[in-house]
Amino acid sequence: MKPTEILFYALTAITLLSASFVVTARNPIHSVLALIMTFFCLSGHYILLNAQFLAAVNIIVYAGAIMVLFLFVIMFLNLKTDDEESKTTMTKLAAVVVGGVLLVVMVAVLRVGTAATYNPSSYSSKVGLVENLGIVLYKDYLLPFELASILLLVAMVGAVMLGRREPGDRHY
Amino acid sequence: MNLTELIIKGILILVLFGVTLLIAMYSTWAERKVAGFIQIRFGPNRAGPGGILQPLADAGKMFFKEDFIPSQANKWLFILGPCLAILTALMSSAVIPFGESIKYDDLVIPVQGIEINIGILYVFGVVSLGVYGLMVGGWASNNKFSLLGAIRAASQNISYEIGFGLSIIAILMMTGSLSIRAIVEQQHGFAWNLFNQPLGFIIFLTCAFAECNRTPFDLPECETELVGGYHTEYSSMKLGFYLFAEYINMFVSSAIISSLYFGGYNYPGMDWVRETLTGSLGAATGHNLATLIGTLVLFGKIFFFIFFFMWVRWTLPRFRYDQLMNLGWKTFIPLSILNVVVTGFGLLFDIKYATWAIVVVMVILALVSSARAPKPAVQPQRT
Question: Which family does this protein fall into (chain A) (predicted)?
């Protein structure tokens, strides 16, 4: 086995283990930490694909910002006690149905879709580097890119509006 | 990559790692000496001449203290916290170029842990992970004060990362590269980014203070309100790791500030020095000596910034929490967005010193507002 293959399999094993720990852990803080580990392993996969920029951005955005906020909120909620009893049969049933539907969708997609192929002789290993990514984003996909940024701007304005203090609100 | 190159690279990485640790160790001594100087007292002066062995004595003390884990604490996370803190602190110096290159036979090896084309993003990512050590440790202690300290650390780091990132973006727009080595190489000689980005530098410096949890932004360990903050329950070397991580972060931020804004290993007259040395000592030796001088210059800049960190710590009082948040969200983020926009205009119309316009306007506004502010009436002292 080539070294990259060994790395790939090791990373995949850690990814799957930590991802399953996210859903099985009793303590929500452990879940969050396992999710951070999963994001790390995904970044490792990006690096194996020679997409360094995506790897770094994945760590900055997900592991560095979003998961910090997750941890922040969960620490405030203090969910240390087991609240297994609060989950009714209805909730469990709904969770099973949603998970099953998602599984069906994924199986269908994987059965129908075909993996993209590449030509090893003409393939450039620099395709995932930041310069090429920038050129692709600003040339071929300019409109979707700008639309996504407008969407983010709207979401930001919405968040500010929700968090704004109304004239009659209490001052903390 | 052949064996010689691998060995030289390995030695280089080990040396850089050792130097990082040594500087962090002696920063603790230097901090107390600087504090002593500013407060007109001696500082540590018992262990060795001038207290030079004080860090070793402190380390010995830290190692032999009782390693206490609170009974209600989450044991594994309690241990994981300081480990994460020191791990992320040590990771971030890997991409900093500490010098130009070493010539050996026909090999040219850059004085840098690893050269990647997204260097500054790597630093940014690792810095944003540093907060996990504080949060996990603070939560696992099972202490309300620790938890409050951890939450303050998290919110402070997230808030100041935005200003941090936006001030870097102005630099990236001017240099057109994410690699720190490319950014440093463009500041060849005396063309330092400081002269083009004065406002970006001030925002970056202040955000670096906040990211390192240094005074005046050390609210996560604010002892007047929170006992000891996130490390209230820690003792022995676990506490030592937290404190050590802070000093390593200080070193790394100083190195990054010097590389981004103060030209890294560049100094005025470096071409002349290089030509003279290569002319008199031969190509390889002269080149290596010139590299060494550049590295020493960089370390001089780093030591100045470490001193600056300490100087500020013993001069300014701590901010209040709402002042901290207002400064981050209502002052630095709009200012850095303005900085990015003005830098863009400067690049578009080829005006090199465009961002000085913001500085000039701000100074005028500050002078006007202080001139128009009502003067406090002089109250006669009661007898």
Answer: Belongs to the complex I subunit 6 family.
